[in-house]
Amino acid sequence: MTTASPDTLFIKTYGCQMNSYDSERMVELMQSAYGLRLVATPEEADVILMNTCSVREKAEEKVYSELGRYRKIKQRNPHLIIGVGGCVAQQEGKRIQQRAPFVDLVFGPQTYHQLPQMVNRIRRERIKITNVEMPEIEKFDHLPKPAGHHLSSFVTIMEGCDKFCTFCVVPYTRGEELSRPAADILAECRNRLENGAVEITLLGQNVNGYRGVGTDGEEWDFATLLYAVAELPGLQRLRFTTSHPLEVNEGLIEAFRDLPILMPFLHLPVQSGSDRILKAMHRGHTRADYLRIIDQLRDARPDLALSSDFIVGFPGEGDADFANTLELVREVGFDSAYCFNYSPRPGTPAAELQDSVPQAVKQQRLTELLGLMREQSRQALERQVGRTVKVLFDGHSKQEGDLIGRTPDYKIVHARANPRLIGHTLPVTITRAYGQSLRGEIVVQ
Ligand code: SAM
Ligand code: SF4
Ligand code: F3S
């Protein structure tokens, strides 16, 4: 029995920018296959997709509790198709349908290009599907050309991770590192630029681990790719995320020196300031290595703003290790950072270690680190007051009559401006620093 063709799609996305990128591709796929209309609530949908993240604790519980809500909707609309994709789907596989039998489809991050066919089979045959394979074929070859009209566009250049940090699920959920051919990346960037994008952010779990086939048939590293993307007509700003300290090479440092279009902002996760903990995390570098890289980068690009990721309370982290982390934060002077309490993730080597730091101590360390980071972020914003910086306006602020934009080093700026200026880059004199953003006035030329 075939159910009626679905008309509407609701998609809920958790996790990193890779997931946001994947969700956009899923919407495009489903739109081109079924002409589906995207709706704002699950109650209106004929197909509900969840794109899940399993990087930190309670990820699975969040998914099951959201699914509980969808179950009620399905009781009212038995034709509703519910699919769970992303990293929790990859890890949990068949367990999802065992625990939530009303879920029709479970699919991993490497199989979503088959969504229309899978949904079709579910409609025709009323079966349940679990597809968490990691096929060799390039899923990118099966995706339609991106159709979105974003001023700022994300383009995935590589997938997966081979670093196997002991705390992290990503190598298991996303599979091994796989770089897209440069010609495909350049074509996607060109397409974005022709459709109105002026800024491109290259995406991957370790973008600077990129090793793909170049347009000359040679293997390109990340820096070579950056130089090629930087040449594309219409591009005003180039960014990337996330990079790994181990893969910062001469070429990348030179790119920051040579390419003004490469914006002076770098998110370079370090996780800890303690050599002992870095080793236990299997990060592959020491604190001194990290500091040396930062020095070289700042030498090449003195206006470079830095951000990072930190984990506190990794198994065995003592007071002295944590003090080293605080000291590193002060020494580098990060403008911002994401700070997390360590949570053991199933299947990772660190989950075998005794989770030795008591929850209260983890919490206290996290509060201290967040306090220090807040103070450093505030100072970084205050240093901008009085400066004139180029702001790319990309949307409306909540405040009526204001636009919102970004400085080259990724700080948010609000300014009174005509909506026609969206998409333009203008000099703005910064007049005020708020907690997490700036206010400025457009310089009248
Ligand atoms: N590939 C990037 C890297 O190496 O930094 C980012 C990977 S992960 C999606 C983003 C951040 O989540 C990590 O940098 C780390 O700080 C945090 N994270 C990963 N696993 C974690 C865990 N088990 N507990 C707490 N935080 C974790
Ligand atoms: Fe996870 Fe480490 Fe890979 Fe980053 S480099 S995705 S933290 S295993
Ligand atoms: Fe989460 Fe998977 Fe991204 S675990 S952070 S959605 S790669």
What does this protein look like?
This protein is an alpha/beta fold and 445 residues long. The chain contains 13 helices and 21 strands. The strands form 6 sheets. It has a 6-stranded parallel β-sheet, sandwiched between helices. Strand 5, helix 5 and strand 6 (129-131) form a beta-alpha-beta unit. The longest helix has 24 residues, at 359-382. It is globular, with a radius of gyration of 23 Å. The mean pLDDT is 94. It binds S-adenosylmethionine, iron/sulfur cluster and FE3-S4 cluster.
Short description:
The chain has 13 helices and 21 strands.
Task: Lay out the secondary structure.
Blueprint (H helix, E strand, L loop, with lengths): L7 E6 L3 H18 L2 E2 L8 E6 L6 H18 L4 E5 H7 L2 H5 L5 E3 L7 H11 L3 E3 L20 E5 L1 E2 L10 H5 L3 E2 L2 H13 L4 E5 L7 E3 L5 E3 H9 L6 E5 L8 H9 L6 E3 L7 H7 L5 H14 L4 E8 L6 H14 L3 E6 L17 H24 L5 E9 L5 E5 L5 E5 L8 E9 L4 E5 L3
Parallel strand pairs: 1-2, 1-3, 3-4, 4-5, 5-6, 7-10, 10-13, 14-15, 15-16, 19-21
Antiparallel strand pairs: 8-9, 11-12, 17-18, 17-20, 18-19, 20-21
The chain binds S-adenosylmethionine (SAM), iron/sulfur cluster and FE3-S4 cluster.
The site of iron/sulfur cluster (SF4) has 10 residues, from α6.
